[in-house]
Amino acid sequence: MGKAIVVYSTRTGETKQIAELIAEGIRMQGAEANVINVTAVKKEADLQRYDAYVFGSATYHGEMMSLMKTMLFMAEKAGLEGKIGGAFGAFGWSGEAPDRIFDTMKNVFKMNMVSGPLRLKSATLGGGVQMAQDYGKQVAKKLS
């Protein structure tokens, strides 16, 4: 099994909770998963020792958080082509961030993406815990 990194950018903590649950799902399938705040990614090398990447951001005023956007520009130079990827995010109203992250990973980075982005209002509403864990399991299955 491989090693995954789940990078999140959060405003109120919801996206961090979702990140932790995705990592749980990855671990349930026997893979390793590290969860880190986007602020801990300082250079391309911080992203280069993983087999799978799951990036997530809250949607704020119809956009992903600015730190996630900055990290994606850096990740473009990290050589992620062909690596396994997924995208997620929490939102209050509109929820565009996960879709934009997913599209960037798929079309710009040319990553091997899971079925689609995970969009949740909250990890604790409407089966969110199970959906986030299942998303992590999808990522881990691509690793095996």
> What number is the mean pLDDT?
94
Helix content: 25-40%
H/E order of the elements?
Answer: EHEEEEHEHEEH
Q: What portion of residues belong to β-strands?
A: 15-25%
The biggest sheet, with number of strands, parallel, antiparallel or mixed sense and barrel status, is: 6 strands, parallel
- List the total number of helices: 4
Uncertain spans? none
The helix/strand class is: alpha/beta
Task: Report how far the terminal alpha carbons are from each other.
Answer: 6 Å
Number of strands: 8
Radius of gyration computed on alpha carbons = 13 Å
Shape descriptor: globular
What does this structure look like?
With 144 residues, the chain is an alpha/beta fold. Helices cover 37% and strands 24% of the residues. It contains 4 helices and 8 strands; from the N terminus they run βαββββαβαββα. Strands 1, 2, 3, 6, 7 and 8 form a 6-stranded parallel beta sheet that branches. It has a two-stranded antiparallel ribbon with strand order 4-5. Strand 4 and strand 5 form a beta hairpin. Helix 1 crosses helix 4. The longest helix is centred in the C-terminal third of the chain and has 16 residues. It is globular, with a radius of gyration of 13 Å.
